[in-house]
Amino acid sequence: MAKYAFFLGCIAPLRYPGLEKSTRVVCEKLGIELVDLDDAGCCPAPGVIKSFSKDTWLASAARNLALAEKQGLPIVTICNGCYGSLFEAAHELNNHPEVLAKANGFLKEIGMEYKGTTEVRHFAEVLYKEIGIDAIKAKVTNPVSYKVATFYGCHFLKPSDIKQLEDPEAPRILDDLVEATGATSAPRKQKTLCCGAGGGVRAAFGDVAKEFTRTNLENMKESGAEFIVDVCPFCHLQFDSTQKDLGFSIPVIHLSQLFGIAMGMDEKELGLSAHIVPVKL
């Protein structure tokens, strides 16, 4: 059985707890053991913390990586932002002894040390590469027929030179995972466009963020999508919370929730009542 330290991040447990529940249920059905990463902090958000102080970003990330290292487990997360921050920090810390030593100088003050061994994975990556499409299909008990817009977001595939998951401009991972449930991934323009929220744009320039979101929603509507399927709670929040203002109403579900639906979870377990745009199955 695959075993991972589960990094929850901030948005899912605080805004959309159904994402956590569906992830736990789906992982159990697929033979993945999730171990709670006790006392974890913010990843921290790369577009905010890293922009002001790279040393603070690396030290904060190193603390989370050290917690997983103590458990002897790689990290898995359901959030692109957390994945991007922790993966990139681990890449620097694990491959540059001088960077690791500097981060450990900060950790020493709180009685911790990171040795530079933790690997970081995204939930979707684990499903695609470690479990496989055929094994997922075998666990689908309630196949769906939705037409969906897959939303990759910015930090899942990029920076592609160090992640090397697949072609960041013409990806298929999420589309293949979605279609394992019986759903159809609807082709559309600007498939890899940012949701608009990242890098502090949502907080500092909300109107600019909404214009990105509007463009995405227009393209999704044109494709005939009935649902938006994302792999990031922050993208999820942006699409779910802004649609009313923009005149759209396309339900938003995380990949873990789509798999939960396909594996027989009910609306309460999926936490759909927390969604602003109503989700009707």
Task: Give an account of the 3D structure.
The strands form two sheets. Strands 2-1-3-4 form a four-stranded parallel sheet, sandwiched between helices. A four-stranded parallel sheet has the order 6-5-7-8, sandwiched between helices. It has helices spanning 11-15, 17-29, 46-52, 54-71, 80-95, 97-107, 123-131, 133-139, 160-163, 173-179, 201-204, 206-223, 233-246, 255-262, 267-270; strands at residues 2-7, 32-36, 75-77, 120-122, 147-151, 184-185, 227-230, 252-254. It is α/β, with parallel strands linked by helices and 281 residues long. The chain has 15 helices and eight strands. The protein starts with a strand and ends in an 11-residue tail after the last helix.
Instruction: Give the class from helix and strand content and strand pairing.
Output: alpha/beta
Helix amount, in percent? 40-55%
Q: Which range does the strand content fall in?
A: 5-15%
SSE string, helices as H and strands as E: EHHEHHEHHEHHEHHEHHEHEHH
Q: Strand count, sense and closure of the main sheet?
A: 4 strands, parallel
The parts where pLDDT drops under 50 for at least 5 residues are none
Oligomer: single chain
